[in-house]
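User: I'm putting together a small comparison set for a docking exercise, and I want a reference complex before I start. The sequence is below, and the ligand is zinc ion. Could you produce the 3D structure with the ligand included, as structure tokens?
Assistant: Of course. I'll restate your input first, then give the structure tokens for the complex.
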Amino acid sequence: MARKKATVEQLRTLNKVREFKRRRNMHKAAGAGPGNKVAKGENVCAICDDGGNLTCCEGCCQRSFHLDNEHNCIKTLGLTIQEAKNIIEKEDFICKNCQYKQHQCFICGSLGSSDDTDTSSQQVFQCEHDDCARFYHPKCVAQMLYPDSQELFELHVAAGESFTCPMHECIVCKEVDNKKDKSMQFAVCRRCPTVYHRKCLPRDIIFKPKKGRRGPMRRAWKNMLPDRILIFCMKHEIVRELQTPARNHIVFPESNVLKTFQALYAQREAPDHSSSKQTHSSPPPAARDQNQCYCSSPLCSFAPSSVFMRPHPGSSGWLDD
Ligand SMILES: [Zn+2]
Ligand SMILES: [Zn+2]
Ligand SMILES: [Zn+2]
Ligand SMILES: [Zn+2]
Ligand SMILES: [Zn+2]
Ligand SMILES: [Zn+2]
Ligand SMILES: [Zn+2]
């Protein structure tokens, strides 16, 4: 994790390109016709991480989705086969996150308002980097980028000032990428802002599964993303049948059960958050028993584990249960 110190001057001198980016995104969306739908946006589906016949969201998220009938992804999107067919044939596709301006923080997974026309209630903010459209809570990204001057950076992001998320430098050597030098290509996690150079990849992130039914699973793919390696980092358990981590990571607004499910999942996956001394005081035993979040953040709304009687239909269930 980055251990950098941001000074007030540094924060002040960061360019205010956020407004520019917002305008550029609006411009991009306006200029997009049905002919170049596949050319822009991500090369893999946001839900199943597979390539193929993808439809890009025309909103600001830059994500792509399978709207064809060969994948199960339209179910997660809440579309019928006919609705999906209509979108492919004649409509522009806007995902529910972009439609309702509610996007997930890429660190904790919780939904928050991304409405930058109402800054008093905006909760998640978009990275300013050209190739990046991820959203973050100010607190989450500040904790990860500047643990030593967290509060200052948090205020900076919350004020709508531009920032670059942790996905643009190697988590090991802190250097940027070089697309021309293979060893300096980025390997990018699909589930969290963890990025390695190819040469800095941990040994556990393997390109070929080890032999045997119980052997370590494949975690890296070379030909899914242009000039980049697609990985699932060690923080995420691979579900054997899916060959990916559990597919409960995408949360759309209007689905409160999924939202709390995701929040609980994020809490389990990120022990750093739940044990952080700065943000959490010691929990009362009752709260701990109920598996509730005991911090005072209004962004945290973890429900008791008894709510989750069974996994939701899109997932393969808990691995550790
Ligand atoms: Zn898909
Ligand atoms: Zn979208
Ligand atoms: Zn967050
Ligand atoms: Zn970014
Ligand atoms: Zn590196
Ligand atoms: Zn990861
Ligand atoms: Zn919390």
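The chain is about 25% helix and 10% strand. The radius of gyration is 20 Å.
User: Thanks, that's exactly what I needed.
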